[in-house]
Structure prediction request, 153 residues.
Amino acid sequence: MRTARKHETDVARCGLHGRIESFPLAELVQTLHLSGRTCRIRVDGPDADGTVWLANGTTVHASAPGRDGEEAFHEILRWGRGDFHVEDDAEAPRRTIASDTMFLLLEALRRIDESGEDGREDAGVDSAASEPSPPAKPRRRAVLFATLSIAAL
Prediction:
């Protein structure tokens, strides 16, 4: 019963929640940044959990298992599956990120593109035994890059 109440309280505090597959984290962070939000983004990833804090739209702290700061931010943005929960007016426990949010987003997406990962592959699927994949959908990252580039001007 205690767990159910805690879950209800957590859900009630969350201003926004959803699935990463439907609303990628880079787009979420960009939206919260541009709207000047102070919040905590809790991310329940496929293999781990992470958290990103923004203060007045500026990314100030991130934590993931074994990482804090920018490295944690980059790790969390690699996750292509899972759930996110945005808690409004949450203050970061400390500041571990000094870089500009738009720079962080561009760097995270650059790393994802260069690694060839997008976090959306199904883990544990034997590619030799599976049917050929359908043609890839256009990446939504291109829209984000264009938006970020225009915003940086």
User: Anything to note?
Assistant: The two ends are 52 Å apart (CA to CA). The CA atoms of residues 76 and 116 lie 16 Å apart. The chain has a mean pLDDT of 79.
